[in-house]
Amino acid sequence: MTRLTARFWIDAYLMRLRGLDIPAFIVAHGDDDAGSVLVKLNRLDGQATLYQRSYNLMEDTRSWAILEQGQEADVDAVIARQRDHDPDVWVVEVEDRAGRHMLDQPGLA
Question: For residues 62 and 75, what is the distance between their CA atoms, to the nearest angstrom?
């Protein structure tokens, strides 16, 4: 199975969010081909949730899992540690008071 590049997936994700008038932007540009992706959902009230793609080896499935949730400053600290550990990581920030991130939608899940 052919894998999508990180850049292709992010461009498609941002386009889908823009189509729903959900503001989102790239906070950190990782490796275009193979960088991992973190998605920060900023609820604009001081709270945030950080999602990462996880792989279930037993079931051979991929899904978005919560890496950190809580105060935005705490989520930002986790992002900083992840970037120190992996400079190729992408970070996309989604800003939506209603908490919409669309990661559970077909084609993104």
Answer: 22
Length of the chain: 109
The model's pTM is 0.91
Return the DSSP state at 44. S
User: Tokens at residue 20, please?
Assistant: 């729903």
- Per-residue pLDDT of the chain (109 residues), as tens digits, is 567 799 999 999 999 999 999 999 999 999 998 889 999 999 999 999 999 988 878 887 788 999 999 999 999 999 999 999 999 999 999 999 999 999 998 877 6
Query: In the CATH hierarchy, which fold is given to the domain comprising 24-95?
Result: hypothetical protein tt1805 (3.40.1530)
The one-letter code for the residue type at 37 is V
What is the Cα–Cα distance from 80 to 7, expressed in whole angstroms? 21
